[in-house]
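Email to the structure team, subject: Putative integral membrane protein (TIGR00698 family) model.

Hi all, the expression group asked for a predicted structure before they design truncation constructs. Nothing fancy, just the tokens so they can compare against earlier work. One-line instruction: predict Putative integral membrane protein (TIGR00698 family), return tokens.
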Amino acid sequence: MLNKQQLSMLYGILLIVLFSLVAFFIGGMHWAKSVSISPMIIGIVIGMIYANTLRSNLPQTWVPGITFCAKRVLRVGIVLYGFRLTLQDVTAVGLPAIAVDAIVVCVTIVGGLLIGRILKLDRSIALLTSVGAGICGAAAVLGTEGAINAKPYKTAVAVSTVVIFGTLSMFLYPVLYRNGLLHLTPQSMGIMTGSTVHEVAHVVGAGNAMGKDVSNIAIIVKMIRVMMLVPVLLVVSWFAAKGKMGDAEAPAQRKGITIPWFAVFFLLVIGFNSLNLLSHSIRDGINTFDTFLLTMAMTALGAETSIDKFKKAGAKPFLLAALLYCWLLGGGYLIARAL
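Reply from the structure team: attached below.
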């Protein structure tokens, strides 16, 4: 028997499942297919509508279930996404993608800290916002929070900027690409998307809207970028231990460093899939189930995007995030064009 807390969490999960089923139904319609609107895109729109309308009327005890879908279900979905890829795909992306990721991560974090200093922004908020924009969104913010022991409200501010600009990218990139405003090949567009869009979920959504050729490369490039979270956190932890990056307002106790194990498992699944041991029908079934899981994650992400997120971000963190976004969009495009 489930206790009251577990039952409430289950209600939150079932709510996201219901929204995702609606997104799947709409995504299967002819008009949606004709304009390449995936269930994931529809899911986040449904989630955003819910966040700004009905959410205040539903029990707060359901929130953990929604959060579970946005975090845990997303990780499972990304791991299973590996069944769509092979090591041959990874090899095709090659060293240029790794180099692009390294440039984007380093310039974004270092540049963000410098801009934050110019804006006289809180050091912890500047670091959290920069790492979130540079690596993998909320996961990077939460990992860095553990390394510097930041106050919860600072983490919330940084995550809000990730949600805002990551969601913007998910809609903007496909529009720019499909209308020919970005003169990039599918491979270059995939590298640009994977190396510059904030959240893994946003990369999946944007890539899916631009087609398989873009999506596969974008996911691989993004996961390489996610793996860079580990060395970045080690560096941040070292500086925090020296008292150069810690949060002066926070207590001395520190949380452990968050390692993105889902990225490791994602690569292991790609390796297994490269052996071609599963039939096409089984892989198709896994891929359909995976799409549904990712739709759940996107819907839950949308359910966290309320107007309050914009208010919490404030002027300076929002300005920093906007400047970093301009760099990611413009710089990422120029780097992708140069490949």
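The chain is about 80% helix and 0% strand. The chain has one domain: 85-293+308-338. Ping us if the truncation boundaries need rechecking.
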